[in-house]
Q: What sequence folds into this?
């Protein structure tokens, strides 16, 4: 079948396409590398005509034009399923409304619980000969959004890698209402940041717990990426990849011969991921690569699926951990930093996996205003969000050690966690533990 005529009929300018948006509408802007660019500029040009257009997105990587033209938030309201560093910056200037959700639940939530969206707009790769537009490196909940929208507008970007499924990695032209040919901006790049000494020490402690053939999930943030790079330099063999976010570290692991996926129980031989953000090297690696399989997040992150892989090792980051073992990975007190994302999904999945282990890693402290501030804290700051309840978190790791706290009593947790704190900050934590009634006389610090 030839789709060229249908393509021509649906092809419009960005200004023409965004005429379908009305005041009060809920619309979706695409996620991550797939957020719209030309359509965003065109919508921003309609600022004076529109009021209260509510925009959904997830993990903003480019500053949207609609935010710049509407500082009073009269025309456009920004909603995110997960905040990126860019969203945090926007949130310091104006409201960004976050919806707390376990990321694995998002496609079903979109399909079954939100009101139909007026418009879904998203970037896609150029149409293939079968009439499909590939979503690029953001499978996520994209297909669910398209199904739930009355009108679908695609903005074609020939820079988007074609990410093979899995499933739900593309949309057919018959399901698209308007096509806009974009100006092909390069993808947002996450620099492959150098690892600190603290990252390296934590990474060594985690790698000691890993064995050949285990399956690796790396979470978002500096430390998990550092662990990934050190895995590439280890002598581990036949590792597998089943992850939400594909990052450069997996390319390092693959190229170093560490990662073959041969022993995975599901999707053997495939690097399974939900979305990818990284350097151009990563985008080139996943492009049309049958080694990689992109899946919606209700496949990658659902604990009962991820856990089908034996020896699932999940490595995520946190902001603070309290002496009871509650993990906060998404706020500093009431100040939102990110979101639950897939962290809880993968903590649950690792424990369900035969031989699996979840690691939440963080530097023991940060230095602010010339003072060391512990990230192991007596209690979380007022308003801090518990990402992983104490009943599910498994290993906590800092540069000073690791502690498997699952099932431990509160006094064992206090001891184990204080041993992960910076040595200069341990005494005050012991005093707090005593005051909280979770320190026994026999407790000791190594
Ligand atoms: C993606 C997957 O594959 S699945 C699951 C992974 N998802 C998750 O874990 C979701 C929640 N986790 C996260 O979002 C991240 O891992 C984080 C936020 C915990 C850490 O990410 P990093 O990029 O390493 O964080 P970083 O150290 O740069 O801190 C982020 C911000 O919080 C601030 N911050 C972090 N800890 C503290 C603290 N204890 N006190 C004050 N501020 C803090 C930093 O200053 C920084 O602020 P800025 O962006 O305004 O400069
Ligand atoms: C998009 C969600 C990212 C995360 O899980 O942290």
A:
């Amino acid at each position: 079948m030839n789709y060229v005529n249908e393509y021509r009929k649906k092809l419009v300018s960005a200004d023409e396409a965004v005429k379908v948006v009305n005041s009060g509408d809920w619309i979706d802007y695409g996620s991550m590398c797939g957020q719209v660019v030309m359509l965003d500029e065109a919508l921003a040009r309609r600022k004076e005509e529109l009021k209260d257009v509510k925009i959904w997105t997830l993990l903003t990587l480019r500053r949207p034009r609609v935010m710049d033209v509407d500082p009073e938030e009269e025309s456009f309201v920004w909603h995110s399923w997960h905040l990126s560093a860019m969203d945090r910056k926007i949130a310091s200037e104006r409201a960004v409304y976050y919806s707390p959700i376990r990321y694995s639940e998002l496609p079903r939530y979109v399909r079954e619980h939100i009101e139909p969206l007026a418009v879904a707009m998203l970037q896609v790769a150029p149409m293939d000969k079968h009439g499909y537009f590939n979503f690029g490196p953001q499978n996520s909940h994209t297909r669910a959004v398209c199904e739930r929208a009355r009108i679908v507008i695609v903005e074609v970007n020939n820079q988007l890698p074609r990410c093979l499924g899995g499933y739900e990695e593309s949309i057919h032209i018959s399901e698209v209402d308007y096509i806009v040919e974009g100006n092909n901006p390069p993808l947002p790049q996450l620099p492959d940041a150098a690892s600190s000494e603290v990252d390296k020490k934590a990474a060594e402690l985690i790698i000691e717990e890993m064995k050949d053939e285990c399956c690796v999930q790396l979470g978002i943030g500096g430390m998990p990426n550092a662990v990934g790079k050190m895995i590439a330099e280890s002598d581990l063999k036949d590792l597998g990849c089943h992850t939400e976010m594909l990052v450069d570290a997996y390319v390092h692991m693959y190229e170093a011969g560490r990662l073959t996926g041969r022993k995975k129980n599901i999707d053997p031989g495939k690097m399974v991921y939900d979305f990818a953000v990284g350097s151009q090297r990563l985008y080139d690696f996943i492009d049309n690569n049958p080694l990689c399989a992109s899946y919606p997040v209700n496949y990658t992150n659902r604990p009962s699926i991820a856990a089908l892989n034996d020896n699932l090792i999940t490595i995520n980051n946190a902001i603070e951990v309290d002496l009871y073992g509650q993990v906060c990975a998404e706020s500093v007190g009431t100040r939102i930093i990110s979101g639950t994302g897939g962290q809880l999904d993968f903590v649950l999945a690792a424990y369900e996996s035969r031989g699996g282990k979840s690691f939440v890693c963080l530097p023991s402290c940060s230095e602010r205003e010339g003072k060391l501030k512990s990230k192991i804290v007596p209690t979380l700051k007022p308003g801090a969000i518990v990402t992983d309840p104490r009943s599910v978190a498994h290993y906590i790791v800092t540069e000073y050690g690791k502690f498997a706290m699952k099932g431990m009593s509160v006094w064992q947790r206090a001891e184990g966690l204080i041993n992960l704190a910076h040595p200069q900050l341990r005494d005050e934590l012991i005093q707090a533990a005593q005051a909280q009634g979770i320190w026994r006389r026999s407790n000791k610090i190594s």
Summary: The chain has two domains: 4-181, 197-435. The mean pLDDT is 96.
